């Protein structure tokens, strides 16, 4: 195994984090451009944290790694988004590698199997003033979500990654099923898409289960802040050495946008689409649906803390300040 891991260092897409953890960067043909997968060394083989998107390029990279003689014991998923779960079924079917996901994640993949995701998001955006929107649905969606996980984990449960025991921490916000994994002795936390080094992760509404995801996101930050973390391993971009500072930067960014939004509706009620276009630029809310989604989740949060109120006008939600 040691000799095989030495070979990993020769691959340009692999970076050594510790003696037992390697970062593998998998290209993504949309959004974040690349995804971080982590290889956790163990006596029985490598534990893979997230697989990358379903693509020939991704499969070729993994086949190359396994072709070096590196045994993969299991796959463990931080959350169910396609750039993290994409090759889970492929690992399971083609290579007999067991796949583990949280119980909440299992609920989400079963929901995706029913193919109601696109309709829900289209309806959500229409409710917030956008009548012309098509969410990203790849030709592989029906394949990648159609599998049964081999194991389930819960919040607070001990999970073995490689030879080390990590605590599974449920940290919703970016997705309803998002999990981090924490090693208390080494003070390492795998943070997935909860915290990224350069950009603020999008906070999403993806089903009726997502009642107030921004509030959940802030609570997840508080949960992480209770742990001593020396190294945070994100789902995209660079390793984060000061996760507390980065979380505060993200929090301040949300606070700035929340203030912009309340200022935008000071004189009249507006939809999320209108406010999003005023803040980000006309047309950008549609070109980048993340802008509109961020505005929607922030308005829901503002209403939950009593800063704004909503009313339905001509079938769309309009927000105004609470006097």
Protein model, in words:
It is built from twelve helices and 14 strands. Helix 9 (243-264) crosses helix 10, helix 9 (243-264) packs across helix 12 and helix 10 packs across helix 12. The chain has helices at 2-8, 56-67, 82-85, 88-95, 103-113, 117-127, 141-144, 213-225, 243-264, 272-280, 284-287, 289-304, and strands spanning 14-16, 21-27, 34-40, 46-49, 72-76, 99-102, 151-153, 158-161, 164-170, 179-183, 188-192, 231-234, 308-313, 316-321. Strand 13 (308-313) and strand 14 (316-321) form a beta hairpin. It has a single domain (2-321), classed as Ribonuclease Z/Hydroxyacylglutathione hydrolase-like (Metallo-beta-lactamase, Chain A). The mean pLDDT is 92. The chain has a seven-stranded mixed beta sheet. Strands 8-9-10-11-12 form a five-stranded mixed beta sheet. With 323 residues, it is α/β, with parallel strands linked by helices. This is MBL fold metallo-hydrolase. InterPro entries: Metallo-B-lactamas (IPR001279), RibonucZ/Hydroxyglut_hydro (IPR036866), Sec-metab_biosynth-thioest (IPR050662). Residues 34-236 form the Metallo-beta-lactamase domain.
List keywords for this structure.
alpha/beta; Metallo-beta-lactamase, Chain A; seven-stranded mixed sheet; 37% helix
Mean pLDDT: 92
Strand content: 15-25%
Main sheet properties = 7 strands, mixed
CATH class division: Alpha Beta
Radius of gyration equals 20 Å
| Tally of individual domains | 1
- The string of secondary-structure elements, in order, is HEEEEHEHHEHHHEEEEEHEHHHHEE
CATH superfamily: Ribonuclease Z/Hydroxyacylglutathione hydrolase-like
State the helical fraction: 25-40%
Show unreliable segments: none
With strands numbered from the N-terminus, the spatial order across the biggest sheet is: 1-2-3-4-5-6-7
Total helical segments:
12
Sum up the overall morphology in one term: globular
Quickly give the CATH architecture.
4-Layer Sandwich
State the total count of DSSP E strands. Answer: 14
Q: Which structural class do you get from the secondary structure elements? A: alpha/beta
């Amino acid at each position: 195994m040691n000799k095989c891991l030495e070979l990993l260092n020769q691959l340009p897409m692999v970076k050594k984090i510790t003696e037992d953890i390697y970062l593998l960067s998998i290209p993504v043909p949309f959004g974040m451009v690349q995804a971080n997968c982590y290889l956790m060394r163990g006596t029985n083989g490598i534990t893979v944290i997230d697989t990358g998107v379903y693509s020939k390029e991704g499969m070729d990279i993994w086949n190359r790694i396994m072709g070096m003689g590196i045994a993969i014991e299991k796959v463990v998923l931080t959350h169910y988004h396609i750039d993290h779960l994409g090759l889970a079924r492929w690992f399971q079917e083609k290579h007999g590698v067991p796949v583990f996901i949280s119980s909440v994640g299992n609920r989400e993949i079963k929901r995706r199997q029913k193919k109601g995701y696109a309709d829900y998001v289209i309806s959500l955006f229409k409710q917030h003033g956008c009548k012309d929107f098509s969410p990203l649905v790849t030709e592989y969606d029906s394949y990648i979500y159609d599998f049964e996980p081999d194991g389930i984990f819960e919040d607070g449960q001990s999970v073995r990654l490689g030879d080390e025991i990590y605590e599974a921490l449920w940290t919703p916000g970016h997705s309803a099923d998002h999990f981090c994994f924490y090693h208390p002795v080494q003070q390492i936390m795998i943070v997935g898409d909860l915290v990224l080094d350069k950009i603020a992760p999008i906070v999403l509404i993806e089903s009726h289960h997502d009642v107030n995801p921004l509030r959940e996101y802030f609570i997840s930050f508080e949960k992480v802040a209770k742990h001593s973390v020396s190294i945070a391993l994100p789902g995209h971009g660079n390793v984060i050495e000061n996760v507390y500072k980065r979380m505060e930067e993200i929090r301040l960014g949300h606070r700035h946008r929340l203030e912009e939004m309340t200022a935008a509706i000071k004189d009249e009620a507006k939809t999320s689409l209108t406010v999003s276009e005023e803040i980000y630029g006309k047309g950008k809310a549609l070109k980048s649906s993340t802008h509109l989604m961020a505005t929607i989740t922030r308005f829901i949060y503002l209403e939950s803390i009593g800063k704004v109120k909503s009313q339905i006008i001509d079938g769309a939600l309009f927000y105004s300040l609470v006097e």
